[in-house]
Write a structure and sequence with these properties.
Strand 7 and strand 8 form a beta hairpin. The chain has one domain: Nuclear Transport Factor 2, Chain: A (Roll). The radius of gyration is 25 Å and the shape is globular. It has four helices and eight strands; from the N terminus they run H-H-H-E-E-H-E-E-E-E-E-E. By secondary structure, the protein is α+β, with helices and mostly antiparallel strands. Pfam families: DUF4440. It comes from Pontibacter cellulosilyticus.
Length: 152
């Protein structure tokens, strides 16, 4: 019985030592918090690209794996660019100017954000088309990038 009790004490002591050492080594490091003050300015900056007809530059705010929601379902960035070219340009020039309002940003963890707002496309004859959108942004080494765009 003494041998069993001694072995139990040794195992218990080893468990405490192992747990104490293991906890320090496997502690999860918290991800640094991104600068959320740059989310809205990033979005606002692309209006200049759209309004001057630079769709290639406008698209750079989207992550290469981003999705864009259409009624038929999500599409990728290349398909989205084609959609924009067909729906909103004539001979490479935008048929309307783009602006945003009602922008709201909510952090999702340390490096993601949810942005909601309203887009306004104003034609040359001052006719407006507008809709609401939800964007999911991620902060990366390249800055804030859109991962998903659901606009209506």
């Amino acid at each position: 019985m003494k041998l069993y009790s001694s072995i139990s004490c040794i195992i218990l002591a080893a468990a405490f030592v192992f747990t104490g050492c293991n906890t320090a080594e496997t502690a999860v490091l918290e991800e640094p918090k991104a600068d959320f003050t740059q989310v809205i300015p990033t979005l606002e900056a692309i209006t200049t690209d759209w309004n001057k007809g630079d769709l290639d530059e406008f698209i750079t705010v989207y992550d290469s794996a981003a999705t864009f929601m259409l009624p038929k379902g999500p599409i990728g960035v290349n398909e989205m660019k084609g959609y924009y070219q067909e729906a909103f340009t004539e001979t490479g020039t935008p048929t309307s100017t783009l602006s945003f309002d009602s922008l709201e940003m909510r952090p999702l963890g340390n490096s993601h954000a949810l942005v909601t707002g309203r887009y306004i496309l104003t034609n040359q004859n001052s006719t407006e088309q507008s809709g609401r959108y939800t964007l999911v942004f991620e902060h990366s080494a390249k800055g804030w990038r859109i991962l998903h765009d659901h606009s209506n």
